[in-house]
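Title: [Solved] MBL fold metallo-hydrolase 3D structure

Original question kept below for reference.
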Amino acid sequence: MTVKAMNAKEVTQKVFNNEDLFILDVRNEDSFQDWKIEGRNFDYLNIPYFDLLDGVEEIMDKLPKDKDILVVCAKEGSSVMVAEMISDEGVDVSYLEGGMKAWSEHLEPVKVGDLKDGGELYQFVRIGKGCLSYMVVSNGEAAIIDSTRMADIYTEFAQSVNARITHVFDTHLHADHISGGRIIAEDTGATYWLPPKDAEEVTFQYAALEDGNEVTIGNTKINIHALYSPGHTIGSTSFVVDEQYLMTGDILFIDSIGRPDLAGLAEDWVGDLRETLYTRYKELSNDLIVLPAHFMVIDELNEDGTVSEKLGVLYAQNHGLNINDESEFRSLVTENLPPQPNAYQEIRKTNMGKITPDRDQQREMEIGPNRCAVR
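Solution (posted by the thread starter after getting help):
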């Protein structure tokens, strides 16, 4: 039977389309439990590769006859060998091209909507890590918000829509992934914006992103308005785009709220977080469409693959926005938090420009899920 390579984009489309898929994950159990490919209609079997070195006969009755089978490992090699053994047993099977490292790096651009006077807004879904970044396009110009380190994907996409990148923003100093903002700005000549309260230790030049800053994109004057919104970090800044969209960074998610502890200052920042969520955002229109910098679970994806919801709906449904007792809120966001992101201290130092890990080191630092939310 045949063995096929299935790439991350093809798996992403199966996630978006709610298709069936059976995943045989041959990584160690702890790696599988920590982080795996998620889909609403995906089934899983985790058997470590070393348990299959003598053959796959004992697991053949656990493999479905009516679903596509995908073998997954960390880098690809082990999954190819297991897939070949399954094929020798007479079953069609695929392996994940590039393994979980490729899954971690895949970005899927999805159009969120149209802006006034012909502009467009795109969301880049980093499906394997839950990171969300954005591109605002208007009349030949583009702005990027919260980019990942895969800089070429943004510059190539801008070229494909005939736009020149003129501004790059980070809503805050990221701790769960390495920003591509500075590299994109250097490569394109764009202005790189960063909140100065998060940038006290950075080693490079940047434009200070302050509350009330207004940046326009293209001759049609698509407006990006900065709103100081501390809590996840002391400098966290949101954006109101085209008076339609609220980009919340890591302050507010669809099904949760941001955690204030990644710089070791949870007790200091919890009041800022509550002030942002319960006062600053409350003053905004309920009709604004919230676009966060992360999602936590696959159920947060809409039918078209985007992650978004109206602010008013979140105030009605998001538990983190409905805790009247301040002590209960403080307890929620400072106690019983999930583990901190892998290598988050090294990631913060990289985003400050203090260390310059090579590509392989950067990939290793980012392996695993994002953990920016209170759960």
